[in-house]
Amino acid sequence: MASFDPRPEAGGYGMFSLRDHLVAGIGPQTDPGPPHWAVYVSVADIDATRPRSLTTGASCWSARWRYSPPGGSPWRRDPAGSVFSLWQPGDHAGAGLVNEPGAFTWNELATTDLPGTRDFYISVFAWGAEGDANNPNAAIFTIGGKPVCGAHAANPGEHPAWSIWFAVDDCDASTEKARALGASVLMPPADLDFGRGAVVADPQGRCSGSER
């Protein structure tokens, strides 16, 4: 279910909900480049984290949109060029439902500099790293010992960016439904280490994954 703010200054901004829980947002694109999902990392103090991200190697990518989500910051590029943003919870804490069918379940970063990128995010957000911290191909980031997101060395031709994964009951059926609604299937359903997954791009080109 989607609801949109009717005020002109909102620019058509809306939020998606599932079983009365907010799960995602949508708004007009204000920067050049292809349409994309925005990745926000929750922080306790945005004013303390923002300069730390810049001094650790990030660059500011955009001015804050006048109707950006409550608690959000301007987007930043990490040292390898991937875009992310910061989120300090206030009245709106972010996604109210995760890891359930129809809701967000995972972020995965494709990067051209895995060692440098891994060090950057660990330094800025005090994340841990699961397993071999010197693995040249993949990393699993943790908080309190629990996995929260991952990264891998970008494959040839793979755009360095964060991807969004949604949980589904049936990966094959969800992929076919997305295709019927105009999506392009970039990676057909396949059995992966974490389950069965697929990657699709919606009619405007935004990429997301589905995982069963």
Topology record:
Blueprint: E1 2-4, E2 14-18, E3 21-26, E4 40-42, H1 46-55, E5 59-60, E6 76-77, E7 83-87, E8 104-111, H2 114-125, E9 128-130, E10 138-143, E11 146-153, E12 162-167, H3 171-180, E13 184-192, E14 195-201, E15 207-211
Parallel strand pairs: 4-7, 8-11, 12-15
Antiparallel strand pairs: 1-2, 2-3, 5-6, 6-7, 8-12, 9-10, 10-11, 13-14, 14-15
Architecture overview:
The protein contains 3 helices and 15 strands. The strands form 3 sheets. Strands 9-10-11-8-12-15-14-13 form an 8-stranded mixed beta sheet, covered by helices on one side. Strand 10 and strand 11 form a beta hairpin. The radius of gyration is 17 Å and the shape is globular.
Which sequence of SSEs, written as H and E, runs from N to C? EEEEHEEEEHEEEEHEEE
Helix content: 10-25%
Beta-strand residue fraction: 35-45%
Uncertain runs are 63-67
Biggest sheet character:
8 strands, mixed
Rg over CA atoms: 17 Å
User: What is the average per-residue confidence, as pLDDT, rounded to a whole number?
Assistant: 86
Oligomeric status of the shown chains?
single chain
Structural class: alpha+beta
- Write out the strand line-up for the largest beta sheet, numbering strands in chain order: 9-10-11-8-12-15-14-13
Number of strands: 15
Q: What form results from the Cα inertia axes?
A: globular
Number of helices: 3
Distance between the terminal alpha carbons, to the nearest Å? 21 Å
